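Each lists sequence, tokenised fold; shown next:
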Amino acid sequence: MNGRADFREPNAEVPRPIPHIGPDYIPTEEERRVFAECSDESFWFRSVPLAATSMLITQGLISKGILSSHPKYGSIPKLIFACIMGYFAGKLSYVKTCQEKFKNLENSPLGEALRSGQGRRSSPPGHYYQKSKYDSNVSGQSFVTSSAADNIEMLPHYEPIPFSSSMNESAPTGITDHIVQGRNFS
């Protein structure tokens, strides 16, 4: 015996450490397959339809005269912009679906990191959590509430700053200089 008490149960499952996924991470074959699948599906099922729809709407607005066309290039610049915005909106709209696909992978370090990261972000209402060392809260612990309305009541109350509509910025309204009447020391 080494002098230390071992309080672990013999059949207790030891949690695996959360893998570090950094810029030097090399994805597994299954993860590469999911990356390719996500890329294809986000392109064909989200980006192409949103780009085409935004281009059609833009062309319709130009035809009705709501948007003006360029004198030299016509509607092309606005259509290209609408296409690019639709493309990126489609890609961004597929992120959650792709994350779920990675979370469903069995032996994936990336899926494990996503599963463990989700647990830290969404804690149940009324749950205490340890803050990061980069948080500005001095106490080190914070209370998570169930709604944003509850957080408003916890904010400090500040008095409104007087507003001056005059052009003279040196004398805002509501602030006055008090001349202290005192003894004359001369």
